[in-house]
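Field reference: sequence -> structure
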Amino acid sequence: MTTTDLATPGRVHHRAATRAARRRFLRAMIVAGLWFWLFWSWLVLTLPAIVERWGGEADGLTYDAAGGPVRWVAFAVGVVVTAGTLTVHVAAGGTRRSFVDGGLRAAAVAGPVLAVLGLLLTFAERATYARLDRYWQGPAAALDVDTPTGIVVQVVGETLVVVTYLLVGVAVVAGYRRLGAWRGTLLVLPLLAPAALADVATRTGLFALWLRGGYDDVAVGVVCAVGGALVAAALAAVVATRVLHPVPFRP
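Structure field:
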């Protein structure tokens, strides 16, 4: 029997455990994403009309004013699923690595869907402001979303942002489990570094509100937005795996 033969059962078991984790994360993303978009689409598209009806002025951008809220849905899913199912996952024979891999793959599936929905909501909001004959601030995006390149960069970048935020959520729960309430809270800020990097690279989200405005050069925008977001997602995966690895489990 060769070393490859001995390793095959381990790889098969890892793939099975990863699929199980992916299903848990993806199920939570679907449920949370559905409720989020039902509520948020209604808010974004009706709030300007409501403000106008009562004599106010609907200036600004509702979606981006909240710092790209869909990423916080991904973060919440990472927190909730990790807090609720990590112990069960490991007890069933899974590993911490397969748990992180499952979360990453679920976010990679849900991310493009959420990114496209966000882009469609941006266009719908612009049409709403145009119908009201009001100033529209425009989206926070690395490049102009009226161009094919800008659309692709926005979708790819937002997908990587979703991946990053979900994995940061996993890491935050792991940090609290390792260090407890007080020291875990001190660890939260450094663990948010990948999320901040993703925001700054894509010029979107809460951490990049001070950078509002896209890249002036298209080539620079593509490299910085996609490349920076990819680095952020990879960093989040490494951080989540490292922080999760020594997490103790108590009966």
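Note: The two ends are 38 Å apart (CA to CA).
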